[in-house]
Amino acid sequence: MTSIPHDTPGEPDPLRALGLEQLRRRTSMKWRTYPEDVLPLWVAEMDVPLAGPVVRAVTDALTLGDTGYPAGTAYAEALAAFAAVRWKWDGLDVRRTAIVPDVMLGVVEMIKLVTGPGDPVIVNPPVYPPFFQFVTHMDRRVVEAPLGADLRIDLAALEEVFRQATTGSGRAAFLLCSPHNPTGTVHTAAELASVAARAERYGVRVVADEIHAPLVAPGVPFVPYLSVPGAGRGLSLMSASKGWNLAGLKAAVAVAGPEAAADLDRLPEEVGHGPSHIGVIAHTAALREGTGWLDALLAGLQANRTLLTGLLAEHLPAIRPQPAEATFLAWLDCRALGLGDDPAQVFLDRGRVALSSGLPFGTGGAGHVRLNLATSPEILTEGVRRMAAALMTHL
Ligand SMILES: Cc1ncc(COP(=O)(O)O)c(C=O)c1O
């Protein structure tokens, strides 16, 4: 039988702090979208208590009534310091940053800076569904350059899409997801440099969504897009939101490469009024003082990845998970199960476990589900048990 891993030394694993009863008291999307008999392993919220420094910083702010508008560059400074230590990147210049309400609204604003209505925005499906929704909503055209069979960027296909997208009108953006949601792929420095070279060749502007950057597995190097040669005209969105489970405390940072600074300067002032001041305080505390907590989380996630592989081998051997190196998501190819294009619906209806359907992730999503690993080993085990049970009743 697949066994549940034990605690690692250091800070306690935050994934094992909360039980189902406590989690069901939460009122956020993960816990309130489905009825109580459904186990939710879908939307990217983590089943963790907050890092101590975040709780203290927010509590202090609330006690003081420090609930006005955000000011200053503390968040960007904390991010720059984190990037220098964690990713060995000292190129994050606070003068080339802006705070934005959250990553997706930041993505929208960056795309607005470098494209016009009707222009193409290239994405690598299967990819985070809001990439399609937000881009379409802002009157840009989504153009797909699907990942290769190895779930990595297909550089030749990307180049061809760059060429086609820029023939004629000329302006185009590439919305890079790094690390990639849902596959957990961490792009290498060589891959990112190739992306930058191709983008330069065709004049495509790169907007990198790097929200999952703090969530690389222990020992895996994350390479910030703006750190690779040729990426100077790129723009990046970074945030503590995924790494420390702060989605409800809205804030993110937009970072411009040296040759994109003038573009970022055109960001309308009102965009900076959108982030929550409490959000900025929380994110800043996470980056400054929450690295011990993050390391404990990353160890727990790694243990959960191993646990999931074992559970699937035992109960659902037809699903062979691709090894993910980042995020807290597992992208599962369920095509061998014969459950059709939307296996998540079968798992929900018959197993009472909620996973994300692969369909909204675009090309390559059919027959797949995305499972959220950021929970306790017990809940993860129960989730896979329910998936297997769904199959029994499906036969
Ligand atoms: C790749 C990616 N970008 C953006 C977001 C959303 O970030 P925010 O809430 O800051 O808009 C998520 C959330 O899961 C994500 O996975």
UniProtKB/TrEMBL annotation:
<dbReference type="InterPro" id="IPR004839">
    <property type="entry name" value="Aminotransferase_I/II_large"/>
</dbReference>
<dbReference type="GO" id="GO:0030170">
    <property type="term" value="F:pyridoxal phosphate binding"/>
</dbReference>
<dbReference type="Pfam" id="PF00155">
    <property type="entry name" value="Aminotran_1_2"/>
</dbReference>
<protein>
    <recommendedName>
        <fullName>cysteine-S-conjugate beta-lyase</fullName>
        <ecNumber>4.4.1.13</ecNumber>
    </recommendedName>
</protein>
<keyword id="KW-0456">Lyase</keyword>
<dbReference type="InterPro" id="IPR051798">
    <property type="entry name" value="Class-II_PLP-Dep_Aminotrans"/>
</dbReference>
<dbReference type="InterPro" id="IPR015424">
    <property type="entry name" value="PyrdxlP-dep_Trfase"/>
</dbReference>
<dbReference type="GO" id="GO:0047804">
    <property type="term" value="F:cysteine-S-conjugate beta-lyase activity"/>
</dbReference>
<dbReference type="InterPro" id="IPR015422">
    <property type="entry name" value="PyrdxlP-dep_Trfase_small"/>
</dbReference>
<comment type="similarity">
    <text>Belongs to the class-II pyridoxal-phosphate-dependent aminotransferase family. MalY/PatB cystathionine beta-lyase subfamily.</text>
</comment>
<feature type="domain" description="Aminotransferase class I/classII large">
    <location>
        <begin position="105"/>
        <end position="386"/>
    </location>
</feature>
<dbReference type="InterPro" id="IPR015421">
    <property type="entry name" value="PyrdxlP-dep_Trfase_major"/>
</dbReference>
<keyword id="KW-0663">Pyridoxal phosphate</keyword>
